[in-house]
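Structure representation:
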Amino acid sequence: MAWPKEMTLAKQHRRAERERDLAEKQIAMGKIGVIYAHDPLTDWSDDGIAKDAVLFLRTTPAQTLKALQVMAQRGFAYKSCFASPTDEDVPSGVDWLRGRHVLFLIGTRGKVPAPAMGTQFRSPISGPNAIHEVIERYFPNMPRLVA
């Protein structure tokens, strides 16, 4: 019987292979597998988006419901989110709060490999390039669209 660490490493290896295989298929078909949308109201064409894709959707707390609706309308199932601190005040809900963070919602459609145990980021994730670091670590090979 393998030790938990050995099992975790084996799962990380299998997940990396799955991500590479998916990326190769998407590249061969000229499809996009990772979308990073700066705003829930950003419009992007579904032409060229792979059936197996992941969406990272930046939103403010006040826009979270709209962002989840946009995600569902585009065929993505909500999986998780993380907060990222910001230097500017952002609306957190009409009159209730003024926050200093944004949210990044993560959704998938089709079969996209989730991060393997031991590779997940912990929220909050800070820094101006936080989202790009997450995408690069989770999906280093998949073709991307920044919308």
